[in-house]
């Protein structure tokens, strides 16, 4: 994956520096981060965070791998994370921890109370093929590395809680069969939609609201102090997955998608129905039984996930209802073509 186009002063400095050997960033680079506006929709901040996090995943073409632990880059990441986390805690105040045995019920209550707009209902009955392809482009940022942010939590857990997470992750990674990995199934869907299935191909065209949902997982997964939050995020991710994925699959079939195109969504209907029970009870409930004070952090992570996913859905639907693309162009404008061709088009063979 190549380095993305900058979206502001910090990502501009970061991408320019990463093109060379590891060295200190210019003094005070972190001070260029905006301290006004919504951090969750700040293009420069969210892209900068995504770049810093990607160095812990697969990295970028031509970027020296020693940048991953370069001290001044980590200082910049810390400053961006502080800004992001402050915004999250302002949106979703941490509550008092419930009794451990009540955590699964508290997660269910959060999900039941969520009144975010339904992107899946729109996709199943009203979306055009161009809009469905846009949706897949947005989701490619996560699904091409599906489960990886949650894997960071495995060594931070113990006993049956660790076993529960490993059980979920084993399914996500195809039970040891590469062709059944969920990331690979998603790549097949992308190919069927005539999209570029190479890793990170559409980073330049997704907006900050999309990057924020992904950065949330990396923030939680890479910090031991937030291990409860990544479990809560995973729990509501699984608890809100089966029905939407059924709708996605039905929507794609309505638009002409065959079994290979819809397999990714169909696989999640059954798998996540099982995963949601494991995640709520064995994972989050068991974790809070081991560490009772972590209940508030688990619910914080869950609430943040629901909030950001709701914001993402609202943004996309608002753009579509206004007759506009939900994607950024290669030059930053919303509807410009990507690398000389439109990122949306007809259903591929």
Automatic annotation (TrEMBL):
Residue numbers spanned by region Disordered: 1-25, 327-349
SMART domains reported for this sequence: Haem_oxygenase_2
Pfam families: Haem_oxygenas_2
Family matches, as InterPro entries: Haem_Oase-like_multi-hlx
Entry coiled-coil feature ranges: none
Annotated protein name in UniProt: Iron-containing redox enzyme family protein
Organism this protein belongs to: Dactylosporangium aurantiacum
Native organism taxonomy: Bacteria, Bacillati, Actinomycetota, Actinomycetes, Micromonosporales
